[in-house]
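TICKET: design request
STATUS: open
ATTACHED STRUCTURE:
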């Protein structure tokens, strides 16, 4: 069975797409939500963009099937790694916080009701972006002396809060290949562009995009995006599970539905 997750922009477009209709159940039931996307949208609930973020979160009722919200919320990337490789749950997991956030969004009548949740999510989101930027700066500085495969091992061990990863470098690269290819493209860009290298925090969206590719370690998952930056996964063994569509298609109910159905049908045919 294949499942589709989206980046944040696609979910925002869905507000227009499904304003007066819903995805057919057979497609909606295959849609899942990345925890990264949930946190990014929730982080805007305490800002001037609260209404837009609230609308994007509420549209999940029309775009993600009728099943319980807990069934379609993907784990945080570190929890996904632990689940895929049969490691015990991290005691510091933020999964309960994210689950409660979904329930509060479901029960809220308006964006203002979620101001406190928005502030908490904003603090978490800013902390994540700062850590990604700091880690990326370290990776760029070490790129001349550290093999890319070893860097991937170190990054995943840090992300998942594990001291040692009991699998080969090649298996890690295979499992997280889209992330590996995309991240190495970003490192190369930083080494070639002094302005890029000096503004890691301003490039945090690129690093979030890279982290979103972590989910492709689960072979059932496919990403739908409108972001042309994801073209940099080309050459990855997982590139065929990164699907791009122009915003005009995503905003059109018929085109969006056809695109999603094509992804699911192709996944079944390839299985």
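STATUS: resolved
RESOLUTION: sequence designed for all positions
ATTACHED SEQUENCE:
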């Amino acid at each position: 069975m294949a499942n589709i997750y989206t980046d944040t922009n696609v979910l925002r477009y869905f507000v227009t797409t499904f304003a007066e209709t819903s995805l057919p159940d057979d497609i909606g039931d295959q849609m899942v939500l990345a925890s990264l996307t949930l946190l990014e949208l929730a982080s805007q609930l305490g800002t001037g963009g609260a209404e837009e973020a609230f609308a994007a979160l509420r549209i999940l009722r029309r775009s993600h099937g009728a099943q319980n919200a807990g069934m379609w919320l993907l784990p945080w990337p570190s929890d996904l790694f632990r689940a895929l490789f049969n490691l015990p749950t991290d005691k510091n997991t933020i999964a309960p916080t994210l689950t409660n956030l979904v329930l509060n969004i479901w029960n809220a009548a308006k964006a203002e009701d979620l101001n406190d949740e928005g502030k908490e999510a904003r603090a978490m989101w800013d902390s994540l972006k700062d850590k990604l930027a700091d880690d990326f700066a370290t990776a760029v500085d070490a790129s001349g002396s550290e093999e890319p495969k070893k860097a991937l091992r170190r990054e995943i061990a840090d992300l998942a809060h594990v001291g040692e990863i009991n699998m080969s470098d090649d298996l890690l690269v295979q499992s997280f290949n889209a992330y590996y290819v995309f991240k190495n493209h970003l490192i190369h860009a930083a080494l070639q562009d002094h302005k890029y290298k000096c503004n890691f925090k301003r490039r945090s969206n690129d690093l979030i995009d890279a982290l979103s590719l972590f989910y492709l370690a689960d072979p059932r998952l496919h990403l739908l995006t409108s972001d042309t930056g994801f073209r940099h996964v080309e050459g990855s063994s997982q590139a065929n599970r990164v699907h791009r569509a122009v915003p005009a298609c995503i905003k059109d109910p018929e085109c969006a539905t056809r695109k999603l159905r094509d992804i699911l049908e192709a996944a079944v045919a390839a299985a």
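CLOSING REMARK: Residues 3-270 form one domain. The chain has one domain: 3-270.
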